[in-house]
Amino acid sequence: AAEPPNSGVQAARRMQARRATNEFGVQVARETGRWRGAAASWRPWMYQKMEVQLRTMGHYTAAYCFAWDRTGRRCITGADDNLVKVWVSRTGRLLRTLRGHVNEVVDLCCSPDNRFLATAGHTDVRVWWLHSGVPVLV
Predict the structure, then answer these.
(1) 81-127 per-position pLDDT tens digit
(2) Contacts for 81 with CB less than 8 Å, ≥ 6 apart
């Protein structure tokens, strides 16, 4: 016996056929070089109107690490000069410099409650109180 035209079984079969067709199309696109993947999300027109809002000098070398605190009021930079600097994001004023790494700072991360800042060098990790700059854990 045939199912009614709008039954759940027929809908499931249609979805299965659509999914198989889509997966087949993706596989063909990958094999033929027409798959764009993550490159499809690049939109150059989004960045054409961007301009520098503030430029400040603070590190002795180039800063390669950057993070915002959870409120967006502070930004934190880490550089190859072994320093971590905390800045006021609106004005660009330097709040504090955190010293103690023995080599380059390679990563930064704020805690979800915005109380701590974790910084990592090549050989060490340090945790700081974000609002005072006092080291908590070395």
Answers:
(1) 999 999 998 888 999 999 999 999 999 999 999 999 999 998 999 99
(2) 59, 60, 61
d(CA 131, CA 74): 10
What is the distance between the alpha carbons of residues 5 and 26, in angstroms, rounded to a whole number?
30
- Closest to 138 in 3D by CA, of 124, 129, 27, 130: 124
Q: How many CA atoms lie within 13 A of 6 on its CB side?
A: 0
List, for residues 49-92, the tens digit of each pLDDT value.
Answer: 778 777 778 888 888 899 999 999 999 999 999 999 999 988 88
Q: Could you give the C-alpha distances from 73 to 46, 67, 90, 100, 122, in angstroms and in order? A: 24, 11, 7, 24, 28
Order of all β-strands in the sheet with 116-121: 105-110, 116-121, 125-129, 135-137
pTM for the predicted model, two decimal places: 0.63
What is the per-residue pLDDT for 115?
Answer: 94
Q: Quote the DSSP letter at residue 46.
A: G
Smallest CA-to-CA distance from 37 within 26, 22, 47 is with 26
